[in-house]
Amino acid sequence: MYIYFSAIFVGLLLLSNILSVKLFEMGSFILPSAAIVYVITYLMTDVIGEVYGKAAARKTVLAGFLTQIIAMIFIYISIQLPPAPDFHAQAEFEQILGGSFRLIFASLASYVISQNLNVSIFHWFKHKHGKKKLWLRNNLATMSSQFIDTVLFITIAFWGIVPTNVLLGMIVSQYIWKCLVALLDTPFAYILVKWTRKKEGNNPDYVIKAS
Predict the structure, then answer these.
(1) N or C: which terminus of the chain carries fewer CB neighbours within 10 A?
(2) pTM above 0.85, yes or no
(3) Which residue spans traverse the membrane (predicted)?
C-alpha cells in the first residue's frame, strides 16, 4: 500500500499546482482551488508515517519535491514549443500552466519546509505516545506545519504586491480553512491506518521494507 499512498500524495501535489490558478469564494473566504487538494497531502504523509515509519514519510516528501521539479521543467519546455497553426490557446495555456518564478519558488520553499516539519512533529508525538493519540499528532502536526506553509507561501509570493492588510487577511483565511480540513480528516486518518495495517498484516516486514 505504501506505493499507492505515495502515488496519491504526488498526484495530489501536482494537481494542486494546476488548480491554484483559480480562486473560489466560500462565505467571507477567498481561496485558491488548490486549498481543497493540497491539505490532503498532509493526511497522506501522516498515514504513511504512522504505518510505515518516519523514513518512508520523508521519502514520499522528497519524491514529491523531485516530481514537482521535473514537472516544471517539462511544462516550461512545452510552453516554449512553437504552437501549431490550428492551436489558438497558447496564451491561455501559458497563463494556466506557466506561473511566475516567484510563485514557483514560494511553492517549493513552503512545501519543503512545511512537509518535513509535519513529519518531524508527527513523529515526535508518536515517539512520546506510541500508537495512542493518533488524533493529537495528526492535528497538531498538520496545523503547525500548515501555518508555516501558509505564512511562507503567501509572504514570498505576494509581499510588496498586495497591501499588508490584504496579505494578513489571506494568511488568516487560508489557515482557518486548512485547520478546519485538518479536523475533518481525522476520522479518515484512523480509517486508513486501521485498514492499511490490516492489509499489511500478512507481511511482518512491511515497515522495514518501506523505510
Answers:
(1) C
(2) no
(3) 30-49, 61-81, 101-125, 146-169, 175-193
